[in-house]
Amino acid sequence: MRAQKYIGVVALLALWVALPARAFIWNEINAGSLPSTAEITHGLGPLTQINGQLNFDNNTQSWGVDMYAIAISDPAHFLATTEAGPNNLSDPALYLFNSAGLGVYMNNDNSTTDQQATLPAGNPLGPQAFGIYYLAIAWGFSDALSFGSIFDLAQFVDTTGVYGPTGPGGGSPVTGWDTSSAPVNFDLPAHYTIDLRGAIEAPEPGTLALLAAATFVLMVWRRKSR
Length: 226
Fold this sequence. Notes:
By secondary structure, the chain is of the alpha+beta class. About 15% of the residues lie in helices and about 30% in strands. The chain has helices spanning about 1-15, 205-225; strands at about 25, 40, 45-55, 55, 60-65, 65-70, 80, 90-95, 105, 120, 130-140, 145, 150, 160-165, 175-180, 190-195, 200.
């Protein structure tokens, strides 16, 4: 009976590893602005694009911020970049937070002439380990907050316009956003497209638990077999 159980576990893991690497595109359903309300991009396979729309939040009288839970499978080559378009955000900002909600890095403008945003691959401030992360998109005038600003935009970190969590709130999880510096009469909702590399959709909690249990049983079985 035990042997059959182990064989079943091994077969489950083999099936999971052998699943075809289909590319997924995620379309926003109702993304929140904080880790507790982030939209989970669940599934298996490479996550290559996220599409959505930012609106004005009548409840909080502030400009919306969309946050997504993603799994970064290849941190060394992870990249997120926004697309320009007639109906897309003209000046977006991208933010990455780790599973604890701590800031990793952000970018507002690609250059002085390109107001799209990119979280570049290979940057020393970028993700260093695979796992669950939170990717947020906001208008360029937005500010991620904890005990003050998380990213200190007054400090230029490098020539690419990428910033680390050097602000007074940089050592604490994100708890809110300041969008009060929006231009006067800036009231047009806008769509966005984020292209991704090195990311997969965040597995559903049940799938993660099943895979973790299967991996543990397999490790125990291997130790006993030795």
